[in-house]
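forwarding from the other thread:

> can someone predict this with zinc ion?

sure thing
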Amino acid sequence: MSLTQPTSSYAPASTDDCAVNPSRVNDHKGEGWTEQDDLLLASMYFSVARPSVAEMGVALGRTPKAIWTQVSRLGMAKPGAKRRPCMTCTRPFFSSHAGNRICVKCIKQNQLECA
Ligand SMILES: [Zn+2]
């Protein structure tokens, strides 16, 4: 009785999963948000007729998920959130609450100076 070793080794066939090409929704994927992006997002988010997240995504060239992430990151969903002028650079920025009067840019600059 001879034991024949099967010579066929496991070779993964090309799977359909690998063929899925995520449609490039935008050119900003992975890019950071600029202050202008934040302001545009804030102006849309706080407009009386707030566009849908999908519409804001199209306007900013980002995915709806990215819009939600940024809305959450900036605290736009919090009550009392609105645009206020920065106490340091006077530029309007998105302020998450009444005590938040310094823009992210100035806060970051401060942190870099202190480090
Ligand atoms: Zn500032």
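The pocket of zinc ion is lined by residues 86, 88-89, 91, 102-103, 105-106 (CB under 6 Å). thats all i got for now
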